[in-house]
Amino acid sequence: MSVVQRQAFEDFAGCFAEAMLLVQRDGRVLAANAAAASLLGVDAENTGASFLRELVTDPPQAVERLLRECASGQGGSALAFDVAGESVAVAVQGSVLASTAAGAAPLILLRLTEGQAPGALDSLSRQLAALDAEVAQLRRLQDTLDATEAGARAIVDTAVDAIVTIDERGVIQSANVVVESMFGYTVSELVGRNVKVLMTSTDRDDHDHHLQRYLETGVKRIIGIGREVVARRKDGTLMPAELAVGEFFAGGERRFTGFIRDISDRKLMEERLRQREETLRVTLEQAPAGIVTMTLDGDILGVNRALCRVLGRSEAELVGRRFHDLCHADDVAACTDTATRLLRERVPSLEVGCRLSHRDGHDIVVHVYLAVVRDAFGDASSLIAQVVDRTEELRSAEEAREHRERLAQASRVMIMGEMAAGIAHEINQPLAAIATYSQACRRMLEAGRHDATDLLDALSEVGAQAERAGEVIRRLRALVKQGEVRRTAVAINDVVTEAIGLAHLDSRSPRAGLELDLEAALPSVEIDVVQIQQVLLNLIRNAVEATEEDFAEANLIAVRTRARAPDYVEVAVIDGGAGLSGDVADKLFEPFFTTKGSGMGMGLSISRSIISAHGGRLGFTRNEGRGTTFWFTLPSLVEEKRAAAR
Ligand SMILES: Nc1ncnc2c1ncn2[C@@H]1O[C@H](COP(=O)(O)OP(=O)(O)O)[C@@H](O)[C@H]1O
Ligand SMILES: [Mg+2]
């Protein structure tokens, strides 16, 4: 008898004041209504264990006779019930429930009337007509119950969980079909076997013990709680499972129902997830770059070892603090802006440069790559930042710069050495003129024929020549002066003009052959003037050398300035020389590459590094006719250009 049936009986019979028992053909009491329970002094909840013959003092044969009569239709007799040691006379009228399915054990409804002598049975039989109506009602109820049970069965069989019901000793009473796919046993293989076949050997040993203890103490360790277990399939393989156990009574017997869910997939997923988390954790922890995770407000949630190392602080010192507190005051706004933009624009990541404070108090220059962590709904949940220490990078950039400058300086001194003859000539000329003019003055004075105007003219000529010599020296000093590189905003045309002046010091320079083609109103450039002049000098000297080798007569060299889109100015040195062979063109920017007997091969390589340090490019193009054009670009001061356009 199912729990459902029993419940239905109790609901039905409970409506009657009359005491009623539901018994099997063998006399097992399946259920008692409240009236019967109080009449007989039995526990209505727990009748399943008792038999009718145990409740009466009459001989078992009398009870058997009554049950036989009832089973074949109707019957009645008086029985003496043992109620707490006292014998109570009860008239019993019984009938079989007609709806009991064919082949199934018949269920018999017994109606009890206290204090009725056997003779009173006749009067009871008069009530049979009324009873018949009730029996018919019961029959309908039973039909409903059957349907309900079939429904329940369907639910149990279509459940995703395996459902196994055992008795107090652990013997399987029933199981749903799910066990077949889950455990590899058929239902009929399982029914009647101990549930231990579904367990691992360790659990097996404990199971009897657990059951026993529960039965003795009533302390629930698994019932209604559920737990994860390892189950064993028929083929011996193991399976992680979730087990929930319920308890109920059927026919007075205690039953346990286990709901077993295969959680292999879940476990596998959990394991994969765990492994991924572990991989991620190790990766973050061992990453060479500093990594910090934080809330959207910038509260630090976690840091890796590299970041601790960069900042000279322990994890405990960092976690819980605000990122902003570590950030240089002047950089906080930039960092906050970047985070805000990142959240708003939904780009994968953004970068920002900032300074973070080391434990010692000094600032560390870092580059921060900021990314958003989103949850399953796509909402931003936290921020993760990669912090790259730029100290090394900046130091090597600084070293490279120093190196370049020393080289450039050396090369300028070298140029000057090469130009020595020209320089001597350039200074000698004014000195000679000064000597001549001062001699003339002296002669005028000695002869006493001195006219004040003549003297003044001669003296101002002396002054002008001295200035000319001074100017040459100033230019040379500027070129070779050792000093810090200083960038100033200047007009490129002025720089070119000055460089031409220097080039003229070179005795080989064809004064007449140097042409200037300067575009007016060029935007300013921000440059180190000495270095750019050095580049120009190199290019002009190369042009002169290329020209004089083959075409001493065709001394056409032009220096041209132009504005170039988008925001550059271009300076070009155009020669009509021999041009470049393919071999030379491939190598000419390499240091120490030269085709000249006395060349150093450093000019172009130094020039190129100077120009790229200025953010420009240096290159060449072969002229359509003869010769080559060497050009370089420099970024112009854009703001100023825009202001000029307004
Ligand atoms: N305007 C030019 N025309 C032809 N060849 C050139 C020109 N400028 C440079 N070169 C070639 O590039 C080489 C390298 O030039 P550079 O680096 O200035 O070193 P150097 O002038 O000491 O040889 C020169 O030797 C020359 O062969
Ligand atoms: Mg050169």
**Which geometry do the CA atoms define?**
rod-shaped
- What's the CATH H-level superfamily name of the largest domain? Histidine kinase-like ATPase, C-terminal domain
Number of discrete helical segments:
22
Major beta sheet summary: 5 strands, antiparallel
Number of beta-strand segments: 22
N-to-C terminal Cα separation, in Å? 99 Å
Structure description:
By secondary structure, the protein is an alpha+beta fold. The chain is built from 22 helices and 22 strands. It has 5 domains: 3-138, 2-Layer Sandwich (Beta-Lactamase), CATH 3.30.450; 159-266, PAS domain (Beta-Lactamase); 288-387, PAS domain (Beta-Lactamase), CATH 3.30.450.20; 390-483, Helix Hairpins; 485-646, 2-Layer Sandwich (Heat Shock Protein 90). The strands form 5 sheets. A 5-stranded antiparallel beta sheet has the order 2-1-5-4-3. Strand 19 (557-564) and strand 20 (568-575) form a beta hairpin. Helix 15 crosses helix 21 (603-613), helix 16 (420-447) packs antiparallel against helix 17 (452-480) and helix 18 crosses helix 19 (529-550). Residues 538, 541-542, 603 line the site of magnesium ion (MG).
